[in-house]
Amino acid sequence: MLYHYLAFGIPIVSEVQLPALVPAFENSEPTNPVYVKLGSVPTELPGEVSSPDGNTLCSINEMIYSIPEKIRFYIANGSEITIESINGDYAANLIYFYSNCLAAILYQRGLIPFHVSGVFTGTEKITLFAAASGTGKSTLAVKLQELGYKIFTDDTAVLFIRDGKCYAQASYPMIRLWENSFQQQDLLQESDKTTLYPDDELDKYGFSFHNVFAAKPIEVERIIFLEKAGVNLSIKAINGSKMFEQLADNVYRCHWIPALKKNLLQFQLISEILRIVPCFLAKRPGEVNSINSFPLEIKKYLQAQ
Predict the structure, then answer these.
(1) Nearest of 82, 99, 96, 94 to residue 15 by alpha carbon
(2) Pairing of strands 56-58, 50-53
(3) Predicted TM-score of the model (pTM)
């Protein structure tokens, strides 16, 4: 049996269930899909190969991604992913498929993923929040939902330019939240939790939002970069080299860029985005719990625009 899904708007045809993804109609003929199967993953790649981190071996069009003693993946030509379970439980390790294999597929297809969450700030417009892991972009998205905003994406999205406008394509309907943040919100319930990492490696959990997920691209109204700094809450516009630096730092798996030879693609896309989309820097105190006050300030700012 084959399962049909969408991820980043790309059709996925899989031998295994991928519950975090959006189901697609099985009777439709997918265009340029990614095929996912179980099988053996090679130990080496031909041609010019590099290793941008301890888990990754790649060339321009092929990648081997491995988690020792757990699981290995082979991703090739933007069209196929092979999963090899080492410990016999591939389903418990699918977080690595969602977070790394899909990103590799995007790069192989000439697409750039960004490390962002986002909410709707209009019927057909969104605001994106860009930040490194642990800065609070997922928590902010959840707290803004409590304040009445509809979720667009969590963790990643693809950005592209079309007809002079910047659009974002959401990844898939899963919010990722640390246990500490989960305990300080009222939107998500304990029964909604999905364990992301096997053997309780990390106290981070997944929460699905399939019923409100927007599968089509949405216009980006603004990008707000998040930073833990200073002693006060502040939001201000940024421009020039500061904008470029911030957005480049928030390219997803940006350390893969040189190995995959996507430097020029990244530069061109970021330059185009910054000509179109206004950018802002929002700071919150690093040593103060602002999990409730910070979203309120963001809401006030969004309402004033």
Answers:
(1) 82
(2) antiparallel
(3) 0.95
The per-residue pLDDT for range 168-183, each reduced to its tens digit, is 999 999 999 999 899 9
All domains in the chain, ordered by first residue: 3-108 (no CATH), 113-304 (3.40.50)
Residue 27's pLDDT band (cuts 50, 70, 90): low
Measured between alpha carbons, how far is 229 from 254 in angstroms, rounded to an integer? 23
